[in-house]
Structure formats: C-alpha cells, structure tokens
Amino acid sequence: MNVQAWTFVMVAASFAVYIGIALWTRARNTSDFYVAGSSVHPVVNGMATAADWMSAASFISMAGLISFMGYDGSVYLMGWTGGYVLLALLLAPYLRKFGKYTVPDFVGDRYYSQTARLVAVVCAIFVSFTYVAGQMRGVGIVFSRFLDVDINIGVLIGMGIVFFYSVLGGMKGITYTQVAQYCLLIFAYLVPAIFISMAITDHIVPQIGFGSKVVDGSGKYLLERLDGLNQALGFSAYTSGAKGTLDVFFITAALMVGTAGLPHVIVRFYTVPKVAAARISAGWALVFIALLYTTAPSVAAFARTNLLDTVTDAPYSEVPKWFKNWESTGLIKFEDKNGDGRIQYTGPASEIDNELFIDRDIMVLANPEIANLPAWVIGLVAAGGLAAALSTAAGLLLVISSAIAHDLVKRGLNRNISERKELITARIAAGVSVCIAGYFGINPPGFVAQVVAFAFGLAAASFFPAIILGIFSRRMNKEGAISGMIVGITFTAAYIIYFKFMRPELNNADHWWWGISPEGIGTLGMLLNFVTAWFVSAFTPAPPSRIVEMVDSIRIPRGAGKAHELSA
Amino acid sequence: MPHNQKHKDYWRKNLQYLAILLSIWFLVSFGFGILFVDELNKIRIGGFGFGFWFAQQGSIYVFVALIFIYVWLMNRLDRTFDVHEKEEKQK
C-alpha cells in the first residue's frame, strides 16, 4: 500500500473509534456535560488532560520550532510543562474543593461580583477561540497534504467529527475520546522518533540518542555536529541560541503561568471525584505530557540534522520526492537567486543569499519522509496530528459552550432556567462554536500565529493572579481583584497590540522595554496585576465574612462532594 | 467550617512545603536552564552541555518528580491533621 492508502486507513479507523466512543458515553445531565459527573479516574483524567493540552501546536509545530530555534526553543519545553507544577501545587486541589463547573464560576463567587464573572467569561471565550482557530488550521494542513483533499473539505470533516462527539457526549464523551486520542498521538510521535534515533545514533531511546554520538564514523556527538553545521551556514549555534537571557526568562514565565491559567486545562480538574485525586491527576497529566515533551527536542535535533544533510548545496533537479510534495502545498519554497541550480540554505550571518523557505510547521510531518521511513509510519503521523488537533479543539469548544450556557445564561441572564433547557443551551452553544471554529479554519485570519502570544499573555495577566489571590489571600476583595485583572489585561494587550499590529516595524529588541518581547510581556502584566490588587485591596473594605469562610473551606480537603450547584 | 488553630497549623505547613518545592521548581528551570546556562554548559555529560540538558530535558523530569513528591507530602499531611477525605458514599 502507498502512503495515501495507509493514511486513509489510519485516519478512517481513528475516526470510527471516536464515533464509537461518543455513542457509548452520552451525557444525560449538565453535570455529565460540564464535568463528566466528576467521576473520572485520576490516571484517565491525566491522560485526557494531556491530550486536551497537547494541541496541533505541540504535536505538529513544536519540534519544528525547536529545530529552527535550537536552545531558544527551550522556552516552549519548560514553559508548557513547568506550568503543571503551578497548577498542581497552587490551583487544582483548591478549585476542586470549591467544586463548581467553570473558571468564571470561581472568579464570580470568590469575588462576589457579576462584573468579575463577566470579565472572566469574556477572557475565557477569547482565549479559547484563539486556540480553536489554530487547531483547525492544523487539521487543514494534514488533510491537504496527506489525503489530497481540498483544505476546506478537510476542515468540514474535522468539524463534523468534533461536533458529533462533543455535542452528544459533552465532557464525558470528550474525556474518553481524548484518552483514545492520547494513545494514538503518543504512539504516532514515538514510533518515528525511535526509528530515526536508531538510524542516526543507534540508540533506541530518543532522549539518550539526542546526547549520543552519530554513527557516520566521524565519532562526533550529534549536538556537536549540529552546532558545526548551523554555524557553517551562518545560523547561531544550535545549543546556544540567539535570544537575550531576560527575554527567555520572561517568555518561559509567561508560558508557564499562562498554562496554569488556561480555562480548558483548569476545568479538567473538576472532573475527578476528590481533592486528592485532583492533585495526583495533575501529576499523571505531566507524566503523559513529558513523554512527548522530552522526545520533541530529540526529534528537533534529528530533523535539523537530516534536513541540513539533505538540502545543503543539493542540486535542485535531484531533490527527494518529499521536497516536491511539500513544495506543491506552498510550505517549502525555493528560489534560485544565483542561478547555479543548487540549493543554498543559509542563515543571517552568511554572505550567501538564502534561497530556501521552509515552513516550520512541516518538520514533524515531513520528518518520516525525510528519514525514509515506511509508508505506514507516515500514515500514523498524519492520524496522530489529527488526533492532537481534534482533542484540543473539543476541549476548547466545551469551555466556550459552558461559558455561554452556564456562566452567561444560567448564572447571568436567566437564573431560573431548568436543567434540561440548560443542557440544550449548552449543546446549541457547542454546535454554534464548532461552526465558528470551522469558519476560521476555512478562512484562517492572517494573525492566528500572532494572537497565540496574546492568549497566553492574557491568561497569565488576568486569571492566574485572580485565582491565586482568591485562594491564598483571605483579605483580597473584589475591588482589588477586578482592578488587578483590568490593569493586567490592559497593559499586556496594549503592549502586544502596539508591537504586533500598530507598529510591527518596531517589533525588535531595540524598541522593546528591557528587551522583553511581546511573547514574554504577560509576565510583567501578571506582576502588575498582583501589585495593583494588593494596593487597591489595602484601601478598600474587606470581603464579607461568608467569603472568608469560603476561602477557609477550600483550603481544607475534607468535604469535597461532586461538583454541584449551590442552592443559594 | 470554623477557622481553628488546627487548620491554621495545617495551612502553615502546606505553605512551607510549597515554598520548598517551588524553590526547586524555580532553580532547575529559571536557574539551571536560563540564568546559569552558560556556566553549566562547561560541564559536559555525553553530548550535552549540562545547562542545555536542564533546559530541554532535566527540568521536565524534575517537574514530574516535584508533583509526585507534593502529592505524597500532602496526603500524609492531610492524615496527620485529620482533614483527609473519607471514602464517600455514592450519591
């Protein structure tokens, strides 16, 4: 069978499994729909959280980014895993004890304010839509490259599948589908990594192969060789990177804190039965995530080596088939500037003009082809990429639909809505969200990549301090929290909008404040939020005693029931 | 739930654990992986500079370990202070 046939088989089989699971786990009430009845086993929840978290960005883009950024790519590796430590130690157990359905629920109740709830709802919806748009683009790329269908049809198929299992099954359906998706995506990620590690370094464990000697007889370590290749072509050395230390620091912090503040991740910890289960569940989630995240830098280094070995000074007429395949999707472009018929791929420090453009997103998908792996592996990677994109999209759609049906309608506009009507509203909201997400997939706004920084910065500068202060400070009041959130968001948004949209020509280290890029500014926004909140709360009345009692109660594990609706 | 001395002590102990664990969290990522990366890179382990290894591998392993240590500490603490969750009957 050829690549396309294998891809078709793998993708069709995985989709059939998702549909099967959806039919098996239908949601019967709002508790099932929002938090899977709070009855999910911690290991299962950890796996689902991992799939929820690892999106098309983790599976498809991250290793590619690292292979082009080298050491600088560490910001993603540390940033997107270190956040789980914050989540497990500072948020998950307390939010579980609090025992509601959504993040705006906590913000609204803890700060006894509809305004605070509304701010949280708007942030949750904005952050989630930003993400969904990115997932749908991933789905489109996989379909157009591997199944030779139109990108739009690919997006429509993806939408149909997500629609089916999220609208029908809610959180319950999504959770069990995500478990299947995790298994598929991690298998699809590890298989080619192991194959390539064996080929280049003769080590079966990519994490070790990454630090081993290459088997080409030169006796050099892989990373040594890569540093040499990079520098010879005018790029900065692979293991040292080009960003400033302070910028790396701030970006890592913004990604960590942003991770801990993302509503679709936080909400997963409402689905387990107990506080102790919420703690351990974050641990399992990170184990499953770490499996991919420690493999990714190895994949990045192998891919970079293979790529440079293949294209450097290669005659264009003799390039391998994968090169032509990706060229036809427009994600590889070659322009023979000096007319010698060979590919000159060079970095900023080289005197020779660079003639090759390679989209970083293709590295993981093209990797098996570059390394000449069998056709079934390529099909597997395609199915894995789809699993990663769909699992995240589904989790995000649930956040959007619960923010609308629960926080906006049930807790805001129409408090007397019945359970049955709320469930219908949630399903309609999920359906509408799928369609909007699909629209963005078919007509991707040019700024998708740019607003991702926005999403993390916003989560870091808004939710995180409000939630932390809500748990760790008994004195924090609504005035402090709301003004903190507003200052944090406004500052972060203004900085990003200025450099990304208003004056993109100034977007470089010379103009940034203290060399902090827009990607890292959320950290500063978060600090401002904390300072403002403390300051304002010191001069405004203390929160009512029932709120102080609530804070005392969430600090003690005993007495956590199922996630429930307070009758008050 | 009355805010009594026992709960205060429990909370103080919890904050101590957090302070220790988060210091390690900060040290391995921001410390070893970013601020001291160049100094540590002078130490080589196989093909890795030590700082580079922490930035792309080591910090992640430590993160995982930290969470499991936290879970173990807290479960023990919950029992010591008798605030752990009893086996709940199904509603």
Element layout with pairings:
The complex is a heterodimer of chains A (568) and B (91).
Chain A: H1 3-24, H2 30-35, H3 42-53, H4 56-69, H5 74-98, H6 103-110, H7 114-146, H8 151-201, H9 206-209, H10 222-232, H11 245-261, H12 263-266, H13 275-311, H14 321-328, E1 332-334, E2 356-358, H15 363-370, H16 375-413, H17 419-442, H18 448-461, H19 463-472, H20 478-502, H21 521-538, H22 545-554
Antiparallel strand pairs in A: 1-2
Helix pairs in contact in A: 1-8, 1-16, 3-8, 3-13, 4-13, 4-16, 5-11, 5-13, 6-7, 6-19, 7-8, 7-16, 7-17, 7-18, 8-13, 8-16, 8-17, 10-13, 11-18, 11-21, 13-15, 15-16, 16-17, 18-20, 18-21, 19-20, 19-21, 20-21
Chain B: H1 5-35, H2 37-40, E1 44-45, E2 48-49, H3 50-80
Antiparallel strand pairs in B: 1-2
Helix pairs in contact in B: 1-3
Task: Provide keyphrases for this structure.
heterodimer, A: 568 residues, mainly alpha, 2 strands, 1% strand, B: 91 residues, two-stranded antiparallel ribbon, 3 helices, 73% helix, 4% strand, elongated
N-end to C-end Cα span of chain A: 63 Å
Number of strands of chain B: 2
- The gross shape of chain A turns out to be globular
Q: Quick one: which chains have the greatest interface?
A: A-B, 58 and 47 residues
Residue windows where pLDDT falls under 50 for at least 5 positions of chain B: none
Task: Indicate the proportion of strand residues of chain B.
Answer: under 5%
Strand order of the largest sheet of chain B: 1-2
Number of helices of chain A: 22
Radius of gyration of chain A using CA atoms only: 24 Å
End-to-end Cα distance of chain B? 22 Å
> What share of the residues of chain A lie within helices?
over 70%
List segments of chain A where confidence is low: pLDDT < 50 over at least 5 consecutive residues.
562-568
Category by helix and strand content of chain B: mainly alpha
Mean pLDDT across the residues of chain A is 82
Strand content of chain A: under 5%
